[in-house]
Structure formats: structure tokens, C-alpha cells
Amino acid sequence: MKQDIILAGVGGQGILSIAFVMDIAALQKGWQFKQAEVHGMAQRGGAVQSHLRISTETIFSDLIPRGQADMILSVEPLETLRYLNYLNPEGFIISNCVPYTNIPDYPPMEKVLGKIKQYPRVKLLDAPSLARQAGSSLTQNMVMLGAASTELIIEESYLKEGIKQLFKTKGEQIVAMNLKAFDLGRQAALQINQ
Amino acid sequence: MKKEVLLGDEAVALAAYHAGLAAAFSYPGTPASEIMEYLIRLAHTHGDLQASWCVNEKVAYEEALGVSFAGRRALVSMKHVGLNVAADPFINSALTKIMGGLVVAVADDPGMHSSQNEQDSRYYAHFGRIFCFEPSSHQEAYEMTQWAFDLSEKFHIPVMLRLVTRLSHSRSSVLSGPKKESPLLPRGNGPDWTLLPSNARRRFAELLHLQKDLLEESENSPFNKLLLSPSRQRLGIIVAGLGYNYVMENIRHLQEKPSLLKISTYPLPIKLIHELIKASDEILIVEEGYPFIEEKIRGIFGLPETTIKGKLSGDLPLSGELTPDLVREALGFPSLPQEKTKDLQLASRPPQLCPGCPHHDTFMALKEVLQDYQQPTVFSDIGCYTLAALPPIQAIDTCVCMGASVSMAKGGAQAGIFPSVAVIGDSTFTHSGMTSLLDAASAKVNMTVIIVDNAVVAMTGGQPTYATGEKLVKICTGLGVAPEHIRQIIPLPKNKEKNKQVIKEEIDYQGTSVIISTRECIQELKKRAKGR
Fold first, then answer.
1. Domain check: are B14 and B151 in the same one?
2. Is residue B345 part of a domain?
3. Is residue B145 in some structural domain?
């Protein structure tokens, strides 16, 4: 069993936190994982991506081959489109539908969302409003992880344990807020299913 | 034994600590910074090692050398271009008789994710006639680092550990062992460390004599693996570092695999290479970075009976990073089905200065002042402020290497450029700009240096700097800049007109002037506000 996931977004949106939670979850589960990420220059408001691979067997490449990703999990819709060539024809797209427009030539939203909606297995969420409901717009990343959890091979309980570990040094309130964001994202995604 | 989630960089750091490391030194640089970040955290919790950021890589290397002389284990880490700065001690340290194990962890950046070039550090190890170890996984990074300390002490040479971005910045699980006690070995012996020509000749002869032992050790290394195909297929593959992973990704499901030689140590294990070539009609060489192995195997004359495929043959690209897809193509396999996104032109999203960044205000004021001059030139440097090359600021003309802004501004001014302006960060200035300013001020060259002082090494994640504000004023005074032409400004939107006036005055001054533009990095301010 394996799942290859492209995590995408803009520097500062907490992509690496999503990745870290999944890493901890995979470790707890006793599975193999490799997760390549970008640090440094690109983190300053640029496009950020991470390749996350989880498997019950040995993983060789840190990078996912094109056409082999089982999921694109993205906190920004334009960034979702950037990695479509990684997605396998059976793959899922879990994406925020609200743009982060820090560039002058951002394409028209209807075009961006239209392109995403062409795919059969898509879940689009309004992450900022769910995050605000959880208590802070900074929790958009955990909203998206919660939404993705409906299609992940790692159970919800392991992911929540990962969230607790990631945020434990920041206090109980922050942990609770991020867990709530996760739950709201998960519920929203389950409703899309129905 | 413990299993934990670590970055490749962190696996190296933890291994060094477990190997009984006494001290570690570094200068921040992507993708190597997390080695020191992790060691500083370990030093903070355990207190039984020294771990510190230094003013530059040369200083870091020499401090590590002092630790080795004292008979203790030392680690020095840096990004690939950092080794250019530390090249002097690096090459010469190979002639000293290393006592406490000295490991040089260098992280290359193929693909230039966050660098100005993609030079391959294996050439440096070859140049210095020392070992280079190249891990392909986190677990290997952990094990090889420990082994590197042992071999450094066994052969009395520094040992290089070569990392690349995709290992440094990839997370995986690492199984770690117990920590060893920090060994105390004898101190260095004077004549083995005093590289006067008479001593250096002797030491160089000893280093050359040692080469056959290094080769033997490399050939017997457990990290090199030769798997010969029982069915004797036409193709044999030589892989190094992450090349191994990309090949395995593509051949793991094959029933009959081609012969494979995995190289993890340099000097190259010649016997193993011979065996693979004997067993194959065609070889494919997959290595990250320059075609180092391929050049060696081809030599000038090539191999008359074997086809060699790799970067020099064009089967793999000479520049950029390897990927599983590129390797798949080189293996001759069809590509996997994938989506095309041709009908939608995707706007690129380059990195940019953060909202509220002090550099933005400095550049906006500078840009407006320079509009009144015929041919102004802004020589810039390495840091967040290099992003001023991109829209919307577009205010700099050069960025070459650490400290080059000040020296290039001097040379440019002497060749007739006016205004000749250098823009350099506080940390880059103390790293490599101070000596250049001494030169410029001594020659009274007509130029203006703007030190964009945000009191931190910002681009790499907020490491400390050792001179900010008043200390920079004192340094510039000491370097010979006239005190009345060392001006301090605060880059804020409300100060723009005032700051423009200061910049104009100093550009018009016929001599070397310095403007120190001081305001805390906005990211650091946020961190402090959160109480982190």
C-alpha cells in the first residue's frame, strides 16, 4: 500500500506543517515515508511544494515521478494547477478555492477553478472561512489536511496525534484550535462526498 | 535505538553528536543550515558540546581545525559555495596531521534552488586528496557521518560528507544508536601542523603516499555495493548518491535487474568499476551534480568496447537536478501517463520581499534618488535584498558572491562609474565586506556603501549576526571611512524624503561614504511578538 502526495501552496501558508504532521503520523503507524521540501529563498512568498510519499514498502526516490501522485493537496488554487502533471489519472485533488494573489498576473478565478473542476475526484473548500471559524486564519493548512484525511490511507487518529505533537510547545489553546480546524475541514469534505 | 523523523541535515547533526562531537561551526546557507540549527538545539538541551554560527565559512573551518588540533572531534558544515570561502583552510588542512576527527559536511544545490551556481563539491575533495562520502538516504547519512569521524582519525585527514538539497531537505525516519563519549586524542605535533615549505613538502609526500590506503579503504567500504546480473544483461548501471534512488525507483519492479554498482565513497573504487564494466557492454552513469564519475571513467580515450551513457553523452542533462523522470528516460522506459496543462498559461510566483520588509523602503528611496543621475549602478550582494533584482523593485545590477558588492563598486568607480553604489546586508558585510571597505576607504574611492542592517541572517531563517547598528558604525570608522560620512537611517515609509536626502548627499560626496539603514527584519519582529 502506498500514497504519493504533492503538497502545494505559497510560502508562509504552512505547507511544511501539513507535511510534518503526516510524517509523524506515518512514523507512529510504523510505515515508510519520505518527504522532500523546499527551504530558503522560495519560502519568501513564492510557490512552495513538498513531495510526500508514504508506503508499507521501501521508498527509494524522495521525489514523486510525474503521473504518479495519488493526491494533490493544495492550500492555493493556482498552485494546484502547477502540479497537475504529477497527478495520476485516478488521483484526488483537495484544494482551497480562495486565491492568494501576491502577483500582478493572477489568471481569472473562473478559469482557475474551471480547470480544477474538470477533474473527476475534486474537493474544493473555502479554507479561510473554515479557519476563521476554528479561531484563526492561520489554521487554513489544518483545514485542508482535515479535508484530505477523508482520502488518506493514514487514519484520522494518527493525524490528530501528529497535530498535537507539532503544536504542543505552543500551548493547549493552539493545539485545540488546530484540531478544530482539522475537524471542520474533514466535515466539509465529507459533505462534498454526499 | 530510537526511530525519529529527521531532515537529511538533521541526520548528519545527530550522527555527529552521537559520534562524540566536541564542537561544531558553520555559517548559514541553504541547504546546509539545518545541520547547525539542530546541533544548537542539542547543545542547548544537553550542554555537552559547543555549537555556534561563525562570521564566515573560513573562520568556521579554522575553528574546527583548532578543535581537531586539540584532539577533539569537530564538524564544520556549509553550503557548496561556502567551501569556496573556506577553500584555503580546507585544501591546506589536508596537509596537516588531523588529530580529533574532522568532518566537513557540504551541501550542494543542484538545480540552484537557493544558490548562484551548482558547483559539485566532489571536485574539492579530489583536489584536496581526501575522502568524500556521499549518502543516498537518511539512514546512510547517519551511519556515514559516524564512520567519517573514525576514518578521519585513522588516516589523519579531514573527511568530506557530500549532501545535496534533496537529501538535506527531505524528511524520513532514522534509526539512531547510543551516544559515544567524546574521545580525547593526543594534541597535534608542531611540525605536522606548521606548513613551512620544509614541513609542507614532507606532509604532502605523506598525503600522496596515503592515497593507495585511501583507495583500498574505499574499495572495501560496506557502503559501495556491486550487484552483478546473473543473466548478464547488456546494460550495467553506475549510481552515486541520489542517483541510486532514482534508478531503483524505476527498476524495482523488474524481474531481472541490470548489473548495478552503487558508489558512495571517493576515491572511486576502481576494482568495482572494472568488474561492472567487464560484465556489461553498455554502462549508464547516474550521478547528481557534474559528470565527475563519468569524466574519470571516460578519461581522454574512452572505453573502446563499452558504450558509456550519462551526462556527457546527452542521455542525462548536464545542468539541473536529477529526477526519477529524467532517469526513467535515460533508462529507455516510456514515460508514465500524465496530465497536460498546456491550455492554461500559469503565472509564475517568484519569491519576494515580505510585506513590511525594511529592504523595500531602503530600495524605494535609493531608486528615486538614482533617477536623477545618468548611469547609476547598484552593485548588490547575497541575501534577501537580492530579490530587489525582480519586479516590483528592480533596483540592482549585480549579485555575484558574498561581499562582491563593495569590491565591485570600488573597481567600477575606478573605471568611471558614477554613482557607484554597493548594497550589502549586515551579516554579508561582516562575512566578506569589511576587507573590501578597508580597501575602498584607503584609496578614497568615490562610492557609497549602503549596509541594509536588519540585525539577522534573514534569508536562511533568522540566524544571529555579530554586528548591527552602532557596532557597524564603529567598524566602518575603524576601517577608515570619515565619521561624518557614516550616516544612519531608519527605513520606514514615513522617513522616505529624509532618507532620500541622506542618500543624495552621500552619493554627491566625493569619497567613500557609508549609509547604515537599520530596521529589524519583519519576520524576526513577528517571532518576538509571538514570544518565540
1. yes
2. no
3. yes
Cα B12 to Cα A127, B32, B167, B183, B403: the distances in Å are: 37, 10, 11, 19, 29
B167 and B301 belong to one structural domain: no
- The number of folded domains in chain B is 3
Give the closest residue to B446 by CA, choosing from B479, B413, B484, B403.
B413
CA within 13 Å, CB half, A172: 0
- Domain limits at B289? 225-330
Check residues B305 and B123 and name the one with the higher pLDDT: B123
CB B94 within 8 A of CB B158: yes
Shared domain for B181 and B255, answered yes or no, is no
Closest chain A residue to B322, measured at CA:
A63
CATH code at B293? 3.40.50.920
Q: Given A10, A45, A60, which is nearest B245 (Cβ)?
A: A60
Q: Which of B459, B455, B453, B466 is nearest to B525 (CA)?
A: B455
B304 and B369 share one domain: no
Report whether pLDDT(B367) > 90.
yes
Q: What separation in angstroms does the CA of B189 have from each of B75, B90, B493?
A: 21, 19, 59
Check A37 against B171: CB less than 8 A apart: yes
Inter-chain residue contact B170 with A11, CB threshold 8 Å: no
Q: Please tell me whether residues B408 and B427 are part of one structural domain.
A: yes
Q: How close does chain A come to B327, measured CA to CA in Å?
A: 10
B120 and B203 in a single domain? The answer is yes
Q: Which of B166, B170, B338 sits opposite A66 (nearest CB)?
A: B338
Instruction: Give the model's pLDDT for residue B142.
Output: 98
Per-residue cell: B413: 568607480
Q: Flag residues of chain A having pLDDT under 50.
A: none
Contact residues, chain A, for B338 at CB < 8 Å = 66-67, 85-88
The SS3 assignment for A57 reads coil
Query: Which sign does the torsion angle of CA A146, A149, A150, A151 carry?
Result: positive
Judgement on whether residues B44 and B180 belong to the same structural domain of the protein? yes
- Given B218, B252, B275, the domain boundary residue is B218
Backbone φ and ψ of B422, nearest 5°: -110, 135
Q: What pTM does this model have?
A: 0.96
Distance between CA B20 and CA B49 in Å, rounded?
A: 9
Chain A contact present for B2, CB below 8 A: no
Using pLDDT thresholds of 50, 70 and 90, give the confidence band for residue B244: very high
**Are both B92 and B194 inside the same structural domain?**
yes
- Choose among A32, A60, A102: nearest Cβ to B249: A60
Structural domains of chain A in order of their starting residue, each with its CATH number: 2-193 (3.40.920.10)
Q: Looking at beta carbons, which residues of chain A come within 8 Å of B328?
A: 65
Q: Which residue has the cell 516510456?
A: B334
Check CB contact under 8 Å for B346 and A78: yes
Q: Which residue of B has its CA nearest to A68?
A: B336
Dihedral sign (CA A174, A175, A179, A185): positive
Closest Cβ–Cβ partner in B33, B325, B351 for A46: B351
Residues 394-413 of B with CB under 8 A from A: none
Joined together, the cell numbers standing for residue B476 give: 566602518
ipTM of the complex: 0.94
Domain assignment of residue B338, yes or no? no
Say which of A37, A46, A65 has its CB closest to residue B328.
A65
Q: Which pLDDT value is given to residue A47?
A: 87
Give residue for cell 539577522.
B456
Interhelix angle A156-167/A15-29, rounded to 10 degrees, is: 120
